[in-house]
Write a structure and sequence with these properties.
about 350 residues, alpha+beta, Rossmann fold, 2 domains, six-stranded mixed beta sheet, 9 helices, about 25% helix
């Protein structure tokens, strides 16, 4: 296991593009850290700087307290799993797993023992004599993971390893990678654009946008206590609903209706009269009908999506649109008029200019 420190890391390319800005993070031994964000946010670039595949333009990267900026990838004792599997097509599964150990001059008996143990962990024992082309996508990804864990290094890096798999395979591999991490205990940094992967796998999540860290925290912290509008909208499926408006007499408009915020959130709204704020609520936080201690909203149902365990209900109220997540047994009829309630405790307020939470 390894303790990592990233101090004011920057990546600036020769053409002047600043891909990563002042990235600061401490990663404890054995932690499972996930970098998440949309394409181009700098998450893979940061991972490649940690791996030694990209030069660090400015800042310092330390492994167990020792500066690692100038170390090559092998000297950093890091194993990396790529999006593309990167298997040798002419080699069997056994030889793909054994390859790095063979290069290191490990004894054949030791190689055989470690390959068999790794294959057993990953459910690959029956496939050791097969070539990669005879495997499914999920099985190839297991081999790629196996090539990393067989080296027994202290740091694992994974760059969107599940993006080539179908939905069912991704769910299976998520749980398998999480279980492998628990068994081997290595410090792991995992990159994805899929917030569901981040929420289900991470000890802590690093949310990035345009090369900047937006927030670092546990899945629970990011979901219930987002620090800004971007994190609130990125974490959660469907995303949080937002209502933008100018605070007038302590109220903002939700379509043709007024929401009186001052009576419940006067302490947060001090000084915001006449300024734009954003009212947010999660689709799953609502209750159908009129409930106590809630804002009551009348609306029209435009579309429903039956998903099995829940139904997404797309509604409009005047010019305002939102998504509600309801029990499938309570699915309203399309084009019907309904009322839903937003509990006061489920309301989020953001500064319309800075986009920070109030």
């Amino acid at each position: 296991m390894a303790y990592l420190e990233l101090k004011n890391l920057n990546k600036i390319y020769p053409n002047g593009f600043h891909a990563v800005h002042n990235f600061n993070l401490e990663i404890e031994q054995g932690e499972f850290i996930v970098f998440v964000g949309s394409s181009g946010c700098g998450k893979s670039t940061t991972l490649r700087m940690i791996a030694g595949l990209e030069e660090i333009s400015d800042g310092e990267f330390l492994i167990n307290g020792k500066r690692a900026n100038e170390l090559n990838p092998r000297q950093r004792e890091i194993a990396m799993v790529f999006q593309s599997y990167a298997l040798y097509p002419q080699m069997t599964v056994y030889d793909n797993l054994a390859f790095s150990l063979t290069l290191e001059g490990v004894d054949e008996d030791v190689i055989e023992e470690r390959v068999n143990k790794t294959a057993a962990i990953l459910g690959l024992t029956d496939y050791l004599d097969r070539l990669p082309r005879a495997l499914s996508g999920g099985q190839r990804q297991r081999v790629a993971v196996g090539r990393a864990i067989i080296r027994k290094v202290g740091i694992f890096l994974m760059d969107e390893p599940l993006s080539n798999l179908d939905a069912k395979q991704r769910v299976t591999m998520r749980s398998e990678i999480t279980q492998i991490h628990k068994e081997i205990g290595a410090t792991t940094i995992y990159v994805t654009h899929d917030q569901t992967e981040a929420m289900t796998m991470a000890d802590r999540i690093v949310v990035m946008k345009d090369g900047y860290i937006q927030q670092v925290g546990t899945p629970h912290e990011l979901y219930f206590n987002p620090e800004n509008l971007f994190v609130a909208g990125f974490i959660g499926e469907p995303p949080m609903n937002f209502v933008k408006g100018v605070l007038t007499n302590g109220e903002i408009a939700f379509g043709n209706q007024k929401i009186n915020l001052a009576s419940k959130f006067a302490d947060k709204l001090n000084g915001y009269e006449g300024k734009e704020i954003v009212f947010g609520f999660r689709p799953e936080a609502i209750e159908l009908g009129e409930q106590e201690d809630s804002y009551k909203i009348s609306c029209n149902v435009e579309l429903t999506e039956m998903l099995g365990d829940n139904t997404n209900v797309y509604i409009t109220s005047g010019d305002q649109q939102a998504i509600l997540k309801v029990d499938p047994h309570d699915t309203p009829e399309m084009d019907s008029d309904i009322t839903f309630s937003i509990p006061y405790g489920s309301v989020y307020l953001f500064d319309g200019e800075t986009e920070k939470v109030l």
